[in-house]
TrEMBL record:
Keywords assigned: Heme, Iron, Metal-binding, Oxidoreductase, Peroxidase, Signal
A Pfam family that the UniProt record links to this protein: peroxidase
Lineage: Eukaryota, Fungi, Dikarya, Basidiomycota, Agaricomycotina
Gene3D superfamilies found in the cross-reference section: 1.10.520.10, Peroxidase, domain 2
Species the sequence originates in: Mycena chlorophos
GO molecular-function terms, A-Z: heme binding; metal ion binding; peroxidase activity
Top-level taxon of origin: Eukaryota
Protein name, as recorded: Peroxidase
BP GO annotations: cellular response to oxidative stress; hydrogen peroxide catabolic process; response to reactive oxygen species
Amino acid sequence: YTWPDTAYDVVEEFFWKDRNDFLDVPPLCDFFPLDQQSTSAGWLRTAYHDVATADVAAGTGGLDGSIFYETGRPENIGSSVSESVSQFASFYGRYISYADVVAAGAAVAVKNCGGPNIPFRTGRITALEAGPSGVPLPTDSLKSQTAAFARQGFTAKEMIGLVACGHTMGGVDNEDFPDINPNVGVASFDHTVYFDNNIATTYFNGTTIDPLISGPATSASDARIFASDGNVTMRSFAHSQDTFFSTCASLLERMINTVPKEVKLSEPVVAIPFKPRDYQLSLLPDGTINLGVTVDVFGPNVISTSRVVTMHWNDRESDRCASGQCSALPITGESNSGLAKRNGNELQAYTFSVNATTKASFSSFWFTVDEDGTGRAVTTERNGGGNYPVDDLLLVVPEFTCQGYLGGNTNITGRITVAIRSSVTPSSVTLESTSNGEGQPIPQIFSGPAEMITGNATSPMLSPSDDYVYYSGLVPGPLNAAGCSTQMEYSATIDRKVHQGQILYSGCTSRASTRLPQSFCEFCGPFPCATT
Ligand code: HEM
């Protein structure tokens, strides 16, 4: 991995580092009493229901997000599916598909309830419409259920495993299946809210409360499935939590990786233990350049009050700062220990903000990490050797960049103003916004040009520095009422090379960049700038 890699960075931060609070959506697993539905159980069930209509022989269906269009079907009855489907809709975007969010949801749900790690790959393509139906029902015969799992790519034995791995969480809601659970509320599958082998131990020791075992015979589907190999699989689970975990990790990974044949999944998304995020290079009103960046230190037990992280940088001439005069300490820090409860990791963040003249500017930065503040254990983070690069041909001008719309014109997402080094002439400058699709969980990308602002002495949009020229434009695209998933991006083509600016997130996501001003943008047009 070499920074920056926008597509990877977005996904890595989403899945591991709680960007946009995805990991915080399901409450801690034991937040709900046993007889209430848990969000985690709903996420796991929803992922299965998306996959359950797969036809692996034909290479169609599987985890393609088609569940989004299928919540009205009797086979998807229940708020656990409909609520999960709409929760997932807040998290997809240009770099992560809705189908990928559903898959991530299953992995996060299992982990949140103490289960095994399920590797998460990306690259799923979201369906444009509903697929065929075919989720197995509790009243189906064993033969038809076995056939359904075979269509999904699982043997009869794997079916036993997959059902037990699912039915260790949550239960049967009286509202959805009053014949199976006649009592108000949710009848749990086992005695714990956690992802554990309690579903199997209670199956053998006579204390099972699984309504798909102890309920009416016609719908005793778990009883039929669990016993279908002479209880061999269930006995191995009851005997060993490790066997249960390793079998479930492998089956659930295969489940979320069941995708249409044209989809090529990525390698598993792994956490980068030290990584910059929310990097932004800006031209300030006083004519200086600001480099703002946060670095995340991530892993088990990383929260430390004695660690000292220092940022160092080189200027445009590259080596003038190499002797170390150009260095700074963080302006703020932030830690997230909530992550530890969910995935065994912690995150400690350090935010830097440093200014330089346009003449000196920046060409790269790196960090030294003094682990206990004593100077005895200092390591250097250099992005694998080449430093973290700075491209100072293209800066953003926060003063004249904002999200919002011109009064009455909801076809404008905002304004972006960029500053381009006067020594170069771009052939084009492009502004983009990504919004949620209407009625479809597909991101829509809109783009438009930015014009050079020649300005005059009376124009407030005049570049404060001779080294930079302003380009500015209104960003097209319907301003999504939800706003949170609206992203703005910009790029400039200079000598046939595309220089990419940073993603400017809207301000309503807590770990997203908040460097985009919401309220100081006269050139956005009349307010309100819709930001939430
Ligand atoms: C023959 C196959 C299956 C049948 C007949 C079946 C049936 C059911 C039924 C009737 C419910 C209650 C839903 C409600 O109250 O609205 C349920 C819940 C659930 N199922 Fe399955 N299921 C099957 C396979 C699976 C698989 C393979 C998984 C995941 C790997 C899974 C995960 C879940 C979860 C987590 C819940 C709890 C949902 C909650 O409490 O919100 N199921 N299942």
